[in-house]
Here is the input.
Amino acid sequence: MQTQFRALALALALIPAGAVAAETPAAIESPAPATVTVLVPRGVPIVVRTLEGHNSYSAQTGQHWHFELVNDVIVDGYVVARAGDDAEGGVAEAQQGRDDLFVYRGANLRVGVDEVHSFCGDTLAVRFDRSEYRRRQGFFGSNKDVTVVRGQMYVPLTSRAQRVCGVPTTATPAPIPAGAIRTADH
Here is the structure.
């Protein structure tokens, strides 16, 4: 009886060990980088670009726009957002140019970037506000609308210190491209 009990106990002890051993090699073959919580300070520049072209004639105040990140955002040796991640913003003001006999109004398109969505699901609050304004060129000049081309780069800044996920990296932050438009506060 004791021999049967020992054999049964040994069999039960070996089954979970075999199941765990079968799962262990699969976990070792595809390790995912461990994410950690990183404190992103206020004022970190992030470069985004427009995905579509827009103009003051067709844009509507309150319209939502999507942008994409140009470079990885690296803070203290951690990537907190990757190139290609989504950013959101919109049109704060859209005004079509108007030129009547007695009334003249220049075209205006005020664009903002509000948040960046990282690869791991966190959201970075950013601030960027840019007003593109165009006046009539000369006394008899034409009244043209303001156009934001596809691929136009903007540099929003993080609006506050915030904790987001990040993965370790040895890369250094890429420089801000020369053609990227910054706001007046940086």
Summary: The radius of gyration is 27 Å.
